[in-house]
């Protein structure tokens, strides 16, 4: 009867979902800034339903499954892709996670899409962000929800998860119960706050692409730039999401549903736009989940923790080959040498 906790560290909120023998026991949320400012209070909240047997920690861009206490500073920099002095983006979350790892809690880190051996190597070339670890968790929730709703075997489930997050838009392709492709928030379409994939010439003109730059230029920026900007921004947002689905259908041709998660999934205007744009492609369904407060990523992280702890969802975790994940987010770079990327993160610097 495993007692587990899943954490989703988002740009806006930090959510916690707990399960005891597969049943909901914790359903909590904090503003991310508050959790970073008060790590001790946040850590205490994780044991509110009793000491957990396993906690899936915020894992950023992901790491192969391993106890957080065994993770080095290098591991954390690779997971959160922030240099030693970086304060923009998710740099603050890395500091919180370092404090979590130093606690007595049985935390583990989990992979992003790029770490999974179910994604063919050619789809990883020059890619880091095919979907962060929390997108893998949301996918776990969507798979379990579809399994329960349809009665299908896990290996018969195929869909596209479309995450409309508070900052980024991302998508994950599931083919016959396995993740086979993805578009991460920094490599996919325009997001609510973030610009999505940057035109290479825009990156050149920017001179320096900081972590903070990756979190700007999205719908909010476009909508405030001129009169009529909101309509323009929403058109780009919806069409970009539709294009992401169309692209990933090439990797998951049997996908018969588009599952929408994230904050944007609650916006009826956006959902209607997706229904219209994807008419004749696949039906659109909002990911409901089983918790009232915690985001879908936290719920999926709890299911993942339950499976890793040998609970009810072990077969799902086994099918996804979560335990077999390996490598680092820098392993597939060719456009720049991995050594250059490591130096940017403050690694391998010698005096």
Describe the structure.
Helix 3 runs antiparallel to helix 4 (91-102) and helix 5 packs across helix 11. The model has no long low-confidence stretch (mean pLDDT 92). This protein is globular. The protein has a six-stranded mixed β-sheet. It has a five-stranded mixed β-sheet with strand order 9-8-7-10-11, sandwiched between helices. 36% of the residues lie in helices and 17% in strands. It has helices at 32-37, 39-45, 73-80, 91-102, 133-150, 200-206, 211-214, 219-223, 229-249, 268-277, 296-308, 314-320, 338-344, and strands at residues 3-9, 13-20, 23-31, 54-56, 66-67, 107-109, 159-164, 169-175, 178-183, 258-261, 284-286. Strand 7 (159-164) and strand 8 form a beta hairpin. The protein is an alpha/beta fold and 351 residues long. It has a single domain (3-344), classed as ATPase, nucleotide binding domain (Nucleotidyltransferase, domain 5, 2-Layer Sandwich), CATH 3.30.420. It has 13 helices and eleven strands. The longest helix has 21 residues, at 229-249.
In CATH's first tier, which class applies? Alpha Beta
Strand content: 15-25%
- Range of helix content: 25-40%
Largest sheet: 6 strands, mixed
CATH architectural category = 2-Layer Sandwich
- Structural shape: globular
The total of helices stands at 13
Distance between the termini: 51 Å
């Amino acid at each position: 009867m495993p007692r587990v906790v899943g954490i989703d560290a988002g740009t806006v909120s930090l959510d916690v979902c707990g399960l005891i023998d597969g049943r909901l026991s914790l359903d909590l949320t904090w503003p991310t800034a508050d959790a970073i400012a008060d790590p001790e209070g946040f850590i205490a909240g994780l044991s509110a339903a009793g000491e957990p047997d396993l906690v899936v920690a915020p894992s950023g861009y992901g790491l192969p499954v391993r106890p957080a206490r065994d993770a080095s500073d290098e591991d954390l920099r690779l997971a959160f892709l922030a240099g030693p002095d970086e304060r923009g983006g998710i740099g603050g979350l890395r500091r919180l996670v370092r404090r979590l790892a130093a606690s007595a809690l049985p935390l583990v880190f989990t992979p992003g899409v790029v770490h999974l051996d179910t994604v063919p190597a050619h789809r990883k070339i020059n890619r880091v962000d095919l979907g962060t670890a929390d997108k893998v968790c949301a996918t776990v929730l969507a798979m379990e929800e579809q399994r329960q709703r349809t009665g299908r075997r896990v290996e018969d489930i195929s869909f596209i998860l479309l995450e409309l997050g508070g900052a980024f838009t991302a998508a994950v392709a599931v083919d016959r119960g396995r993740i086979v492709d993805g578009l991460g928030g920094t490599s996919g379409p325009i997001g609510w706050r973030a610009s999505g994939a940057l035109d290479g010439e825009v990156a050149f003109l920017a001179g320096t692409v900081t972590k903070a730059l990756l979190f700007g230029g999205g719908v909010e920026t476009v909508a405030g730039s001129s009169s009529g900007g909101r309509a323009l921004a929403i058109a780009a947002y919806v069409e970009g999401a539709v294009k992401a689905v169309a692209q990933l259908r090439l990797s998951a041709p049997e996908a018969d549903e588009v599952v929408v998660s994230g904050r944007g999934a609650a916006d009826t205007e956006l959902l209607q736009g997706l229904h219209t744009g994807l008419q004749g492609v696949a039906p659109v369904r909002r990911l409901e989940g089983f918790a009232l407060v915690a985001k879908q990523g936290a719920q999926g992280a709890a299911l993942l923790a339950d499976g890793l702890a040998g609970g009810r969802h072990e077969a799902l975790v086994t099918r996804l080959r979560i335990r077999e994940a390996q490598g680092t987010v820098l392993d597939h770079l060719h456009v720049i040498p991995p050594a250059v990327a490591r130096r940017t993160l403050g690694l391998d610097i010698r005096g």
